[in-house]
């Protein structure tokens, strides 16, 4: 409840922006046929929840490598959305190629 205080308004606004980005990406994946035809809000809740859960269980300094952990969770989230989970590596390669072609689009604000 304390996090709902006005001191955290910037956090909640940025979180909502991130959720909007997830939502639009998920909808684009559904529309293209890359993702399963799932309810977009259910897909958003499941995917966003998986990623947010890292804050609860991942501890810096643990035996888990942060980059490998993030990579694993991202792959699991993406695989859960794909219409063809066997295409996971091909979808990641295509996304990486797009990112390389348009790096400014993917920079963090």
Structural write-up:
This protein is an all-alpha fold and 109 residues long. The chain is 65% helix and 0% strand. It contains five helices and no strands. The chain starts with 8 loop residues before the first helix and ends in an 8-residue tail after the last helix. The mean pLDDT is 87.
Give a brief outline of the structure.
Helix content is 65%, strand content 0%.
Sequence of secondary-structure elements: HHHHH
What's the count of strands?
A: 0
Task: Report the portion of residues in β strands.
Answer: under 5%
Shape: globular
What are the low-pLDDT stretches, counting only 5+ consecutive residues below 50? none
Query: What gap, in angstroms, lies between the N and C termini?
Result: 27 Å
Radius of gyration: 16 Å
Based on helices, strands and strand pairing, what is the structural class? mainly alpha
Write the layout of secondary structure elements.
Blueprint: H1 9-32, H2 40-52, H3 54-57, H4 66-81, H5 88-101
List keywords for this structure.
109 residues, globular, single chain, 5 helices, mainly alpha
